[in-house]
Design a protein that fits this description.
Pfam families: Beta-AFase-like_GH127_cat, Glyco_hydro127M. It is globular, with a radius of gyration of 24 Å. It is α+β, with helices and mostly antiparallel strands. A hairpin with a 2-residue loop joins β17 and β18. Helix content is 36%, strand content 21%. It folds into three domains: 403 residues, Glycosyltransferase; 99 residues, Immunoglobulin-like (Sandwich); 101 residues, no CATH class. It has a seven-stranded antiparallel beta sheet. The N terminus is likely disordered. It contains 17 helices and 24 strands.
């Protein structure tokens, strides 16, 4: 019972195995439980294959990024120490975690072969004492060495989770033991604050996978190590993450404001709350997310300027600002996933959806698999295929998508995204039986606001199925068995009924078009949003005018016309819309808009911010 309860509550950066799936596949289970139960279980059911818009982007991530990974480049820092970059070792761990999550969905034979090969090459470089970094002995535990071991742990534990290969857990335990031996407050141990960059936050972010290692092993030394890390925040020269957030409630007041490293710590801090129930950890993370959402978040669901949090409402969005670091986007999603799991509060899920449909997908070119380190809202997206931290982090975020569209909220199966998908799971019936459940979702979303959900069970039964009403949706209704259920934005509809063996839910909703003001950074600009998607003007699709100079009258209401047929043959994506805007000379100007996630894919200058006049 303990394991079943635990497996329904816990996830590692978005992934968990149900007890049924683990038993069927003879995969490992965790050795301990959370102190704080979860409202929402981000879990992988028996199967969940996205087949629509997000499914297509997911497959691009597999075929154009993961299967084309530079194996030599991500391994050579271990095989021939020292590495060429101080942080070169992070990439193999990020790859292994991404590949593990993706393989659990796709069962791609090519990916499994590649993943096995890279895993075996990595563990063959581990030293007898457990060291698995890319430094020479005279530089151990300096610069980014702890950070590299952090990503070793992520990758090894993910590989263990999906394969059950004991060698992966053994290697992770050796890493954990080495960290516990070297860092602490006892005589002869090192201060972890002095072992990493950015006021120690790079090194202390190892709190995240160390919490996971405790869950896999039940070894209290790893939980104690997490407590040590929180204590170390207040060492001399430390970042004082928890105390500052509790007192100031603003992330830009914490340490040097480095976004990626700070949020990486916060993900671990939330896990520590779940393990201990100590409320200050949860409150610190909640204050951080509330502050980012209110003051430091771009309309596309990312944050950071030159990799740091800036003062209130400063959201410069061009290429010069080095905004929206890809590592930050992925970590922002992970942080909201943790808070959503604890609370089931849709405000955290709304941030996940915003980031996924916009900044996360926008950071990877679907045609080439290349990634932009910083992904601007104004200018050409600088896609590159060389090895950098964000070129490993963005695919890592995309690999989480199938773990976000469906799950259990308060033990009820819940559809969160209206993407086409084939889902197999189990459901608890009103009389306490566990039945296989099949959901077949047919949908044209995000282009269309309608979907049909086929619900199949082996025999008639009563249970509740929940549907999320998106925060942006209007006129939402779901009809099944002659009864219509309606809902308002940002709520859950519970369909509690006697289900036949085969059922069909017809879902429909309107996808509104809204005008977003440019705020403090762009006071004379507007952006156009359709449902969860921010739209963009791509210069290559609008050759008749200079998008950087045209000034439009801000409309009080805006209608979009479908213009998918106007896209070039080579364009990846099927959404395009004509907006008829009035220019400053009061002339009608048709503008072709595409989702921000697809803009600039052919190298065109693009912008979500359009100069506007009253």
């Amino acid at each position: 019972m303990l394991i079943q309860k635990f497996l329904s509550a816990f996830f590692i950066t978005g992934t968990v195995l149900s007890s049924v799936q683990a038993q069927q596949a003879s995969l490992p289970v965790f050795k301990t439980d959370y102190a704080v139960p979860a409202a929402y279980a981000v879990q992988l059911p028996e199967s969940d294959r996205l087949t629509g818009y997000l499914g297509l982007r997911y497959d691009y991530n597999l075929n154009n990024r993961l299967l084309k990974i530079d194996e030599k480049g991500i391994l050579e820092g271990f095989q021939s120490r020292p590495g060429k970059q101080r942080w070169i070792g992070e990439h193999v761990g990020k790859y292994l975690e991404t590949a593990a999550n993706t393989w659990m969905i796709t069962k791609s034979a090519a990916l499994k072969t590649q993943m096995d090969r890279i895993f075996n090459a990595l563990i063959n470089t581990q030293l007898a004492d457990g060291y698995l970094g890319t430094y020479l002995p005279d530089s151990y535990w300096t610069s980014w060495d702890v950070w590299v071991h952090k990503y070793d742990l992520f990758g090894l534990l993910a590989y263990y989770r999906v394969t059950g290969d004991q060698r992966a857990l053994d290697a992770a335990v050796k890493v954990g033991n080495l960290l516990v031996k070297n860092f602490g407050d006892a005589a002869g141990q090192k201060d972890i604050i002095k072992a990493g960059s950015h006021v120690g936050m790079a090194a202390t972010s190892v709190i995240d996978p160390m919490a996971d290692l405790y869950m896999w092993t039940g070894d209290l030394r790893y939980l104690d190590f997490c407590r040590y890390i929180v204590k170390s925040y207040d060492h001399e020269g430390g970042p004082s993450i928890v105390k500052t957030l509790l007192n100031e409630k603003q992330v830009d007041k914490v340490a040097n404001g480095k976004a990626y490293e700070m949020m990486s710590n916060l993900v671990g801090i939330v896990k520590l709350y779940r393990l201990t129930g100590e409320d200050q950890y949860l409150r610190a993370a909640q204050y951080a997310v509330d502050d980012i959402t209110a003051r430091r978040l771009f309309i596309t669901g990312s944050t950071s300027d030159h990799e740091h949090f800036k003062p209130d409402y400063v959201l410069q969005a061009d290429t010069a600002a080095h905004m929206g670091e890809g590592c930050v986007t992925t970590t922002w999603i992970q942080l909201n996933m943790q808070l959503f799991a604890i609370s089931g509060d849709l405000k955290y899920y709304n941030e996940i959806e915003k980031a996924v449909y916009n900044h996360l997908l926008g950071a990877e070119n679907p045609e080439t698999g290349c990634v932009s380190y910083y992904t601007p809202l104004i200018g050409v997206k600088p896609y590159r295929c060389n090895i950098t931290c964000c070129l490993s982090s963005v695919p890592r975020g995309i690999a989480l998508i199938p773990y976000l569209n469906y799950g259990k909220l308060n033990n009820r199966p819940t559809v969160l995204m209206y993407e086409a998908a084939n889902i197999r799971d189990q459901v608890q019936t009103a009389d306490g039986k566990a039945l296989p459940l099949v959901l077949q979702i047919h949908s044209g979303f995000p282009a269309e606001g309608k979907a049909t959900i086929g619900v199949q069970v082996p025999s008639a039964a009563r249970f509740a199925l929940q549907l999320r009403v998106p925060v942006w949706a209007t006129k939402f209704k779901a009809t099944v068995g002659g009864k219509t259920y309606t809902g308002t934005a940002n709520e859950l509809i519970a369909i509690d009924r006697n289900w036949d063996r085969e059922n069909t839910i017809a879902v429909s909703f309107e996808i509104p078009v809204t005008i977003l003001p440019g705020g403090q950074s762009y006071p004379n600009f507007m952006a156009i949003k359709r449902g969860p998607q921010v739209l963009s003007v791509d210069q290559s699709l609008n050759p008749a005018f200079d998008i950087t100079k045209v000034v439009f009258q801000t409309p009080s209401a805006l209608q979009l016309a479908n213009a998918a047929t106007k896209l070039p043959a080579q364009w990846i994506g099927k959404q395009a819309y004509i907006a008829k805007l009035r220019t400053s000379a009061n002339k009608a100007q048709p503008v072709l808009l595409v989702p921000y996630a697809e803009a600039s894919q052919t190298g065109g200058d693009a912008s979500v911010w359009i100069a506007a006049s009253k």
